[in-house]
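BUG: 3D viewer hangs when loading the predicted structure for this chain

Environment: internal workstation, default settings.
Expected: structure renders.
Actual: progress bar stalls at 90%.

Input used:
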Amino acid sequence: MHILGFDTATSACSAALWRDGHITARRFETMVKGHSENLMGMIEEVMKDAGTDYPDLDLIAVTTGPGGFTGIRIGLAAARGLAFAADLPCLGVTTLDAIAHGVEETEREDGAVLVAIESKRADIYAQVFGPRLESPRLEPLGEARAVLPEDLAENWAEMLATKPGKRDRVLVAGDGAERAIEGLKSGGIKAVLSQAPQLPDAAVVAALAAERWAANRWTPETAPGRPRPLYLRPPDAKAPKNGGRLRP
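Structure tokens produced before the viewer hung:
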């Protein structure tokens, strides 16, 4: 199976090709702007490095947010366009999920992980992940939400109240981790910074899509519909009072 994955939702742009259990090509670059100008070039380089052409692909995987509004739209538009042109299914993976699965199992010690992404505002985007029952696989332990760092301690206790896991510390990942750790510590919770990459990586996105495709035994006919963006707060831009019409 050939899966093309990419991400433009945060402060990085990346693309990767997953083939038969392995990442065969990858590009990753941090950037605040320029995702639209760089994404297709990265995809072409990845396809060339992997010796793969579009007719060889079986699936497109893309991040759906949370993150920057423009970046999310760029990635989803590219994914939908490629999927439509090549008649391929398309799966979405959240940025929080991608970062959580970039944390090594040995680092989290079967405990939970708090992922925190910068919103470039007072709040951060956060979600808790951890193992369920006896499985070491990470699953969401609560909904993704936009939350102030100083409110995290209460939210963390809430999410873990009935969940198994290692509770003597919180492992925090993501580019909002430092602010999240400060908030947790102010609430009396021990928190440590994960050594995992702070931003989503298309290699993780593609691998996660492969795992979920196999686990759900999807086929192109039974696959979920096109992925939708995950926005945790309304956009800053507002429609003009006159509806955008020119004033006389």
